[in-house]
Specification:
The protein has 281 residues and is mostly beta strands. The chain is built from 1 helix and 18 strands.
Length: 281
């Protein structure tokens, strides 16, 4: 096993910072169709002031001869991992390949997408691999020796929020109307089921302490069999406390459906600040 330490790369967007990437090569693969597995260690730091939950959505590695290789996380025992403020996490991505030669040559690219579940932000990142001589020049030939480096060539930060308004009814303890309520999705969970939640909307009734949520379910990955899953909703106050939660069960899903959730919320004068809607198998 060979470990290569790469220079830091900074992503100063959102609450996350990719601080360094290393490579472990020539590992044994548990997949009988693969000759070997390489692991790319991506060190992620939480630069915000509150914990974040990170979920891996997808990844792809393209060699310098344009061969596309599968990338999967190797150490996720749950659907997301938590990073506390000013702490780091080593996200290990496995690259499966049949070649017994070095797949890390100048021009190879790594593309991956992760989601910050807490802040409802999706990071789409693309890096190119180079060999850098000590004078700073990039080598064109994979046979030449130098210092391995990753260069960020493309990044996109995508908000996964829908803003809705609430109604203020008479008798609601003179609460003013809140027009800055967010509906959050956990896109990584949707990807795993091959679906997407769309056209989300909500209505908040402070008189009857109730939140109604509506949406559509569309298929993005066709599957031969119907699917069963739940759609869950959690209502948060401005202080970040849970005010209510509920779910609805979708059975025999075959490509399209619509749903409605009716969630009772706690009394006490608190306003709804955000709504998290996600799917669960």
């Amino acid at each position: 096993m060979q470990s290569r330490y790469l220079p830091s790369e900074m992503i100063e967007k959102g609450e996350l910072d990719i601080i360094s990437m290393t490579i472990d090569q020539d590992l044994e693969s548990s997949d009988p169709e693969c000759c070997s597995t390489s692991v790319i260690n991506i060190w992620i730091r939480n630069i915000g002031d509150k914990p974040v939950d990170i979920s891996f959505i997808n990844g792809n590695f393209v060699t310098c001869i344009s061969e596309s290789l599968q990338v999967k996380p190797s150490d996720l025992t749950s659907e997301y991992f938590r990073i506390d403020p000013n702490q780091e996490y080593d996200m290990k991505l496995k690259v499966f390949h049949r070649s017994r030669h070095n797949i890390f040559c100048p021009g190879a690219k790594l593309l991956f997408t992760i989601q910050d579940v807490v802040n409802s932000l999706k990071y789409q990142l693309e890096y190119v691999f180079n060999m850098t001589h000590r004078n700073g020049l990039n080598f064109a030939s994979p046979n030449m020796r130098g210092r391995p480096s990753w260069e960020l060539i493309n990044s996109e930060l995508i908000p996964l929020k829908v803003f809705v308004s609430s109604k203020n009814y008479e008798g609601a303890d003179n609460m003013s109307s809140n027009t800055n309520i967010e509906i959050e999705r956990i896109e990584a969970f949707e990807e795993k089921l091959g679906i997407r939640l769309e056209n989300l909307s909500a209505s908040v009734d402070y008189e009857y302490n109730n939140v109604e949520i509506f949406g559509e379910i569309n298929e993005i990955d066709s599957q031969p069999e119907s699917r069963d899953f739940s759609i869950k909703a959690i209502i948060f106050s401005e202080q970040g406390q849970i005010m209510g939660c509920d779910d609805t069960y979708i059975s025999d899903f075959e490509g399209y459906d619509a749903f409605k959730l009716n969630v009772d919320i706690t009394k006490g004068g608190e306003k709804v600040n955000r709504i998290r809607v996600y799917v669960k198998k």
